[in-house]
Amino acid sequence: MKIFNKISYISEFKKDLKKLGKRFKTLEDDLNIFIKSQLKIYHKLEIDNRGIFRINDLDIKYPEIYKAKKFTCRSLKGKGVYSGIRIIYAYFKNEEKIELIEIYYKQDKENEDRERIFKYYKRG
Questions:
Q1: Is-above-0.85 flag for pTM?
Q2: Which residues, at least 6 apart from 115, have a Cβ–Cβ distance to it below 8 Å?
Q3: Is residue 75 part of a domain?
């Protein structure tokens, strides 16, 4: 059973994932679990576990841009959902589509790359 019509990745996300995947060997599998569980719970079942937040101050009306702060990475033992991995993604509600924009480790950088977001999505 499909959860979303389409899940895609921008090219920079693939580079982020490959780079982080060298440090955190379970990351790709963990990402698939995150999509099948957390994104389904939040967007389809409309249950807010306080782990996914809409980034409201971007002035982008569509698609909605989100930051996931609760992400379990099994390579970071003992941290659970507070692994420090962050995922930025766009949710196209009308098309039932998720587009992954950025994945980063909070100890490497503090916040999302807003220039990257604006490169792909229009303000206003």
A1: yes
A2: none
A3: yes
